[in-house]
Amino acid sequence: MAKKPLQIGDIAPDFELFSDGGSKVKLSSFRGKRVVVYFYPKDDTPGCTTQACGFRDKYHVIEEQHAMVLGISPDGVDSHIQFKNKYNLPFRLLADTDHRVAEAYGVWGSGSIIRSHFVVDENGRLADIQIKVSPEDSVKKALETLGAKTSAQG
Question: Which residues are catalytic?
Answer without folding.
Answer: 48
